[in-house]
Write a structure and sequence with these properties.
Elements (H helix, E strand, L loop, with lengths): L1 H16 L5 H13 L39 H5 L3 H27 L8 H28 L8 E5 L5 E5 L11 H6 L7 H35 L5 H7 L5 H5 L2 H4 L9
Antiparallel strand pairs: 1-2
Helix pairs in contact: 4-5
């Protein structure tokens, strides 16, 4: 009741003033008088929006085959931004990603073509670059202040099947030696005949995949050298780092296709 007795005279005063002052002046008057009351919360001027259209693309892009868009944010672009700008940009990218995922799901439901699906890849790449830039700044700050990176510690350990993975440590309430459930769940040991057989077959499969990939790249380089003898070999070596381009260039089956220069 005391609050109402304080607000009622104020409302009568404001009703008389609103007819003769502008909107900006009325807003400042409301803020000044309301903030003087100790038990009254400040008036919020945010427009409430209870619609879900922010999860969908603009209506002019519905049914289009292609939507014009720009490139993603690179690390060089993000490094010159302030922390406040990066924080704002993260939520802009997050909103854009949610919208694109919603549109992709809707197009699948309607059996329609999702226009410019590369937009989603660019947004994800931009978010990954933004996280990497923020992580770089955190590492630089912690190394300057404490001499450490500030990252969660971790190490490469084998699981129950002997496959090595990077385990990121985190804090526990109970110490490691006294945490029975954690020790039962994270037994970084392996052994036995079945596990050794599995590791042998698993490593053989990985070797065969790498060998086939290396052979495919080598055959592709041979095909390019036979078809285009004057191709830039340095660029080709950068494109296929696992292939010795200079060694393949000296093969007879490649050099025999090059035109013979007639000596005058």
């Amino acid at each position: 009741m005391n609050i109402l007795r304080q607000i009622l005279p104020l409302s009568q005063q404001l009703s008389k003033c609103f007819s003769s002052v502008s909107t900006q002046q009325a807003y400042s008057l409301v803020q000044r008088n309301v903030m003087s009351l100790p038990s009254v919360r400040a008036i919020s001027t945010t427009m409430p929006r209870a619609e879900l259209m922010d999860f969908f693309d603009e209506k002019k892009n519905w049914g289009e085959q292609e939507v014009k868009h720009g490139r993603g944010w690179t690390k060089d672009d993000l490094r010159i931004k302030s922390n406040s700008d990066l924080h704002k940009l993260w939520f802009v990218l997050l909103k854009e990603r949610n919208m694109l995922l919603t549109m992709e799901h809707e197009c699948k439901e309607k059996m329609e073509l999702f226009p410019s699906p590369e937009r989603l890849d660019k947004v994800k790449e931009s978010m990954e670059n933004l996280e990497e830039v923020v992580r770089e700044r955190n590492r630089a700050y912690y190394e300057l202040e404490t001499g450490q990176t500030g990252e969660r510690p971790g190490k490469v350990v084998p699981n129950e099947l002997g496959i090595r993975f990077y385990y990121r440590a985190f804090e526990h309430v109970i110490p490691k030696f006294a945490n029975r459930k954690w020790n039962e769940r994270h037994k970084f040991t392996f052994g036995g005949t079945a596990v050794r057989k599995f590791l042998h077959l698993y490593r053989e499969r990985l070797y065969n995949e790498k060998r086939k990939l290396r052979n495919r790249e080598r055959n592709e380089v041979v095909h390019l050298l036979r078809r285009f003898p004057n191709i830039d070999r340095e660029t080709l070596a950068q494109r296929f780092p696992s292939v010795d381009v200079e060694k393949l260039y000296k093969l007879d089956k490649i050099r025999m296709n090059q035109p013979i220069k007639s000596s005058s």
